[in-house]
Amino acid sequence: MKAKTKLIHGIHIGDPLTGAVTVPIYQTSTYRQEGVGSHKGYEYSRTGNPTRAALEELMAVLEEGHAGFAFSSGMAAITAVMMLFSNGDHIILTDDVYGGTYRIMSKVLNRFGLEHTFVDTTKLEDIRAAIRPNTKAIYIETPTNPLLKVTDIAEAAKLAQEHDLLTIVDNTFMTSYFQSPISLGADIVLHSATKYLGGHSDVVAGVVVVNTEELAQRIHFIQNATGGVLGAQDSWLLMRGLKTLGIRMEEHERNARAIVEFLQSHPKVKNIYYPGLLTHPNYETAKRQATGFGAIVSFDVDSENTLEQLMRKLKYFTLAESLGAVESLISVPAKMTHASIPAQRREELGITDTLIRISIGIEDHEDLIEDLTQALQ
Ligand SMILES: *Cc1c(COP(=O)(O)O)cnc(C)c1O
Questions:
Q1: Is 170 marked active-site?
Q2: Are 222 and 106 in contact (CB under 8 A)?
Q3: Which of 71, 217, 291, 354 is the most buried (most CB within 10 A)?
Q4: How many CB atoms lie within 10 A of CB 60?
Q5: How many alpha carbons fall within 13 Å on the CB side of residue 225?
Q6: Cα–Cα distance for residue pair 92/24, rounded to 1 Å
Q7: Contact predicate 199/169, CB 8 Å
Q8: CB under 6 Å to ligand 1: residues?
Q9: In this structure, which residue's CA is closest to atom 2 in ligand 1?
């Protein structure tokens, strides 16, 4: 089955009871038992819900994993994965991970004795050098935000296997449509489904997919024990979004290519960060391990003046956090998502005060380019 068909037929569709073509929304917290302990597989909706179960099964198929789990947000999914570890364990993470991941590692889980080291995971030697006797996992986000650094998943997973570590990949930016970390050797894939998987800026959700029955049992135990599950309505919305993931990603990327070309020719635009550019330092890796380059693009403009003017004059790019939706969004990492990072560290990383990140939507790219042209004038 090819990728777009899988999004529609990856799991058996419909409702056997009525013939309804879509999965019903089972808006129920509990289930009647025939006798004590005798039930149809569902007892209580934190433990399991048929609408959520359909989404979880679909996500396992899409990520080529063994089992999927849906959470109330990307951060709830990440938290559940981190609950696999114990006091005294050590995790190696990509140095420019999502801000929320940085926050939970350095401000919450550290209080429970979970140790961490942030390294540039695009450099295999840096990962190797960070491995300690108590290291349990390598956590990769690729490409990263906002500089789109790409880590070689297969290489990192091989190193992890040699040291008996788990490989965990945040696949939010590429999605299961463009990148399949489990087939590259990862053990666990997770998503902020709030972004491309949902795709319409209308649901906050998270997903975890694992590659073995043993990990599936452990994550299900944690999901049920900690309780950050996705509700039935949101599970249904996410499934609706997923059906068009393929056509959306293709269109997002087509637009991204056109806009990158435009930006390259603009005198007020300086550095452009996009893994699909031949000049991107990780272009070869990006090309090898994914079937697309995505639609998140960052670039520097020539001055803070230009930046302010751009923000004021753009019509089709909404100034907002988040990404991966049908509508184009724009943000200023140094002032928004990455404001909590000290200025000097930001400068070292390349997150300058004139850096702009755009999440390119699925509008007609001619309109988006016209909008950028007038705003940069
Ligand atoms: C948004 C995001 C998260 C967090 O997900 P929420 O759904 O906002 O909790 C995690 N990782 C990445 C890469 C993200 O973009």
A1: yes
A2: no
A3: 71
A4: 24
A5: 11
A6: 41
A7: no
A8: 73-75, 98, 100, 141, 145, 170, 172, 192, 194-195, 204, 206
A9: 192
The whole-angstrom distance between residue 75's C-alpha and the CA centroid of its chain comes to: 11
For the record, the structure tokens of 66 come out as 């063994």
What pLDDT digit, counting tens, does each position of 95-121 carry? 989 989 999 999 999 999 999 999 999
pLDDT digits (tens, 9 = 90+) for 292-341: 999 999 999 999 999 999 999 999 999 998 999 999 999 999 998 888 77
Closest by CA to 375, choosing from 317, 334, 300, 326, is 317
> What is the pTM for the complete model shown?
0.97
Q: Which two tokens stand for residue 150?
A: 């790409």
What's the gap in Å between 319 CA and the centre of ligand 1?
18
pLDDT tens, position by position, 32-87: 999 998 999 999 999 999 999 999 999 999 999 999 999 999 999 999 999 999 99
Structure tokens at 84: 């696999």
123 is annotated as an active-site residue: no
Side chain identity, residue 117:
T
Nearest CA among 112, 69, 114 for reference residue 93: 114
